[in-house]
């Protein structure tokens, strides 16, 4: 295995929105072709394709090749809940790291339209009660034995944190949504770009208390793609291309270890803590070095509990952290300056690639109005229930500007 | 011996034991004591393959909750979904029942297992669910 780093050579995302006139192939193709153009390369330079989508039928990667180039390279179709996109990146990363590929394409896409509420299982009314499955259930238990809906599950993760730690309540959760909606007003790629007051957020219809509608990510459509390259191949490319390349200092994927309560409430903390520890170790940096963080704010309650798990604050200190303004774009550690999933949107397969695109764009100094000045290191985090956590730490190129 | 389940009733899940004194029945790992409500091939914690059935305590404390306003069709809203921890250290997910106002659910509150009929099928068989009511 190569000790050399893997680099992001090209990156692109579509605006997250609703595209009823397009299909997932259109969206993915657009992101891939624009990522090629961004890196100054083409499909014939790719040695591997990792294609992530949660809802596309099997074989999506091969169908995508029919649109962007059938070159015969290996295709990995990736599905890993909300960590699908990050997992696709990790697949391409590992192939390059292993010396099996010099250049690879990772793409994530989703076309969700207005899917509405995502629940753990769809409800099918049985006419005759008969036990089935490993729990021997005779009917859908969602809503009877607690909730399986995502806003509810993440609400419980938030109130569980509030039970164990001081200074966390409805207002602290709402402030997360206030921040991310505010940030999104500077991001033309965000699905929603509208500021809301704290009162509007707390007063919007309750989905699953404490998550109101404005504290939940929307469903939507979109794609994002990155071209990864080995360090050796990067060195053979023109200096100006090398200068825009961004180093992947850490690429980590974890799953949830056993915890007592895990069978009834997914533990979204331990695997994030484990991934963060591995990522900081691999990158040789700490949370204090981060210029920006894009983390998985599928719901406001989720973002708040990730602060401590990622080491952005003390483990139980998330209430004070948001109250202090630290994660705002002018704060100590800007979090979700893209608007996050709450405002930018969450087309599931695309999300984990889009947050790497966002961090890459800031490290290149190309983020326009939302640029975090002087950002040299950034972290992208996603979590999928089940569970999977992906973290990538990215670093600005240290190659000096050409004379 | 627990009372037999009435002929016209079935528990909503296999781990709910009906009768005069309903309770939850867990599969407890013979190696490490980890408890599971579903059938397991091996323990997710230690890998042991032996399990014994153990009765779970009915008394519990509310550790996390959400007041759910948007739910699947047919589910009355709002309702309180909760994670409770029983006095013998087992986490359970279910609804908090018996509150006149769902916003009265409070972290740390003492609750107790209770059962109720949640539906009837075309053969007239009643489905019995469990929830937790303020103790």
What does this protein structure show overall?
The complex is a heterodimer of chains A (403) and B (135). Chain A is an alpha/beta fold. Helix content of chain A is 34%, strand content 18%. Chain A contains 13 helices and 11 strands. The mean pLDDT of chain A is 95. Chain B has one domain (9-134). In chain B, strand 2 (16-17) and strand 3 (23-29) form a beta hairpin. Chain B has strands at 9-11, 16-17, 23-29, 35-36, 51-56, 59-68, 79-86, 91-96, 110-120, 126-134. With 135 residues, chain B is mostly beta strands. Chain B has a 5-stranded mixed β-barrel. In chain B, strands 2, 3, 4 and 5 form a 4-stranded antiparallel beta sheet that branches. Chains A and B meet through helix 4 and strand 5 of A and strand 4, strand 6, strand 7, strand 8 and strand 10 of B. Strand 5 (206-209) of chain A pairs antiparallel with strand 6 of chain B.
Question: Can you describe this structure in just a few lines?
Answer:
With 403 residues, chain A is of the alpha/beta class.
């Amino acid at each position: 295995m190569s000790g050399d780093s893997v680099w992001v050579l090209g990156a692109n995302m579509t605006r997250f929105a609703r595209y009823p006139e397009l299909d997932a192939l259109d969206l993915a193709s657009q992101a891939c072709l624009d990522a090629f153009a961004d890196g100054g390369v083409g499909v014939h330079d790719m040695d591997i394709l990792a294609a992530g989508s949660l809802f596309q039928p099997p074989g999506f990667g091969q169908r995508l090749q029919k649109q962007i180039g059938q070159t015969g390279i290996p295709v990995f179709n990736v599905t890993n809940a909300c960590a699908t996109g990050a997992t696709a990146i990790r697949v391409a990363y590992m192939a390059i790291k292993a010396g099996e590929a010099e250049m690879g394409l990772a793409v994530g896409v989703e076309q969700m339209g207005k899917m509405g509420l995502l629940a753990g299982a769809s409800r099918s009314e049985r006419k005759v009660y008969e036990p089935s499955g490993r729990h021997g259930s005779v009917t859908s238990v969602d809503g009877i034995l607690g909730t399986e809906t995502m806003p509810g599950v993440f609400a419980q993760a938030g109130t569980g944190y509030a039970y164990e730690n001081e200074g966390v309540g409805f207002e602290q959760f709402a402030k997360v949504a206030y921040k991310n909606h505010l940030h999104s007003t500077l991001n033309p790629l965000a699905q929603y770009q509208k500021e809301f007051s704290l009162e509007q957020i707390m007063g919007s219809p309750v989905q699953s208390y404490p998550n109101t509608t404005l504290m939940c990510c929307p469903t939507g459509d979109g794609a994002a793609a990155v071209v990864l390259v080995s360090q050796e191949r990067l060195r053979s490319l023109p200096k100006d291309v090398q200068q825009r390349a961004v180093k992947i200092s850490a690429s980590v994927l974890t799953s949830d270890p056993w915890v007592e309560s895990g069978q009834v409430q997914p533990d979204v903390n331990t695997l994030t803590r484990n991934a963060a520890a591995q990522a900081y170790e691999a990158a040789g940096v700490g949370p204090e070095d981060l210029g920006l963080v894009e983390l998985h704010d599928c719901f406001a309650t989720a973002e708040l509990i990730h602060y401590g798990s990622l080491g952005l604050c003390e483990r139980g200190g998330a209430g004070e952290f948001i109250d202090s303004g630290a994660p705002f774009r002018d704060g100590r550690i800007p979090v979700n300056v893209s608007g996050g999933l709450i405002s930018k949107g969450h087309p599931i397969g695309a999300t984990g690639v889009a947050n790497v695109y966002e961090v890459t764009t800031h490290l290149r100094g190309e983020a326009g109005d939302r640029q975090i000045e002087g950002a040299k290191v950034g972290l992208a985090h996603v979590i999928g229930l089940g569970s999977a956590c992906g973290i990538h730490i990215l670093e600005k190129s240290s190659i000096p500007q050409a004379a | 011996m627990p009372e037999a389940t009435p002929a016209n009733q079935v528990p909503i899940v296999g781990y709910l034991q009906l009768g005069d004194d309903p309770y939850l029945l867990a599969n407890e790992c013979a190696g490490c004591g980890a408890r599971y409500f579903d059938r397991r091939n091996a323990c997710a914690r230690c890998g042991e393959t032996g399990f014994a059935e153990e009765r779970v305590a009915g008394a519990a404390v509310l550790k996390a909750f959400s007041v759910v306003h948007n739910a699947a069709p047919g589910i009355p809203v709002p309702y309180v979904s909760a994670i409770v921890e029983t006095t013998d250290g087992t986490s359970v997910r279910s609804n908090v029942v018996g509150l006149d106002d769902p916003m009265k659910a409070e972290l740390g509150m003492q609750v107790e297992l209770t059962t109720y009929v949640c539906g009837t099928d075309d053969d007239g068989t009643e489905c019995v669910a469990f929830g937790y009511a303020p103790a």
